[in-house]
Specification:
single chain; 201 residues; alpha+beta; Alpha-Beta Plaits; Rossmann fold; three-stranded mixed sheet
Amino acid sequence: MKWTELSIFTTNEAIEPISNIIHEAGAGGVVIEDRQELEKDRDTPYGEIYDLNPENYSEEGVRLKAYLPVNSFLGETVSEIKQAINNLLIYDIDIGANRITLSEVNEEEWATAWKKYYKPVKISERITITPTWEDYQPVSTDELIIELDPGMAFGTGTHPTTVLSIQALERFIEKGQIVMDVGCGSGVLSIASILLGANKY
């Protein structure tokens, strides 16, 4: 199935009303790319490593992206979106450049598009989880690396319950112990246990 990526270049003030317009037009969601994100200070309670690429953010400020199916109504839908955005001027809402671009996307590309947002994460004193496609180098000799290849079935290993479990394993596991990982899913807790010195899992 083919989809159209609708990109709208606008302002912070117009994010909410334009997002609502896009939702009402039938889009299942809206991606907000705000260049101010590059300058934001972030808390990292789980050791997140933020690696935002400036090239992914528009020089024009804010870019909203949504996906609409390619069908016979697409042209009419886009025209209605443009008109609704222009109508925001009636309410003195700054819509900025209000530049709209369209590009075609194959559904197959969506299956891997999320990968660019999954980066290495240091989740405990010694353990870092990294996707298999990232070239990550340990920052210390005692750092332990878990490589995961997450997809539709399993997560990234960075859910708070997983993080807390690994932190507990790191604190309490002793070399040679036997660990049972019940309902293991991706097996990340088993992998962590082996790296920390367990004999079996």
